[in-house]
Amino acid sequence: MKQYSIGVFLNIFDRKIEDWKRQIKHIKQLKEVGHIEVLLEETSLNNKEIEILKKLLAGYRIIIHAPFMDLVLLSPHQEIVKATIAIWQRAMDIGKSLKAETFVIHAERYPNFWNENTARKQLITQITILAKKSPFPIAIENLSRGGKTQIPYPSTEKQITDLAKILPKNTGLTIDIGHLLQDDIDVFAVLEKTQIFGSTKKN
What we know:
It is a single chain. It is built from eight helices and five strands. It is of the alpha/beta class. The longest helix is centred in the middle third of the chain and has 20 residues, at about 80-95. About 20% of the residues are buried.
């Protein structure tokens, strides 16, 4: 019979120890928490910081959620796959110090010029390599089709026009009209405010 426990996240997005303590203080007020899933985006922790984290987590079973911002196992670029695995290995080292039980990963999305079989083959190949290096079991998390873990920038009219004002020399904007239309943004307003029409209006 499978056993389940109630778990909560501890977000390690940076090296702000006071924020870790604030989160743990809140977690300790919750009832029946059996495990903490440490979302470990910051992997450059030093030994002292790891020891502090270990003390804060004392008494809880630990799961490590691997970093996933900008990381992808299902990339056609092997440099990105290798970089992803290298960052995950740093997270594994921290997890080992914390005596974690499981390592959760996102395979993330695959390019639209692949088919599902190609994605599955790459995933199995890479996860087999990773599993041999891992000190604990690896769990692949299912993802929502519409899930968004990062915020596109620039995308709003204000973001685009504000950015246009501060770009350095030898840089500019590509205004993708299709993207604007998808988000119901006034194309002509954006073009005018970024001065695309500036020269034509004067002529």
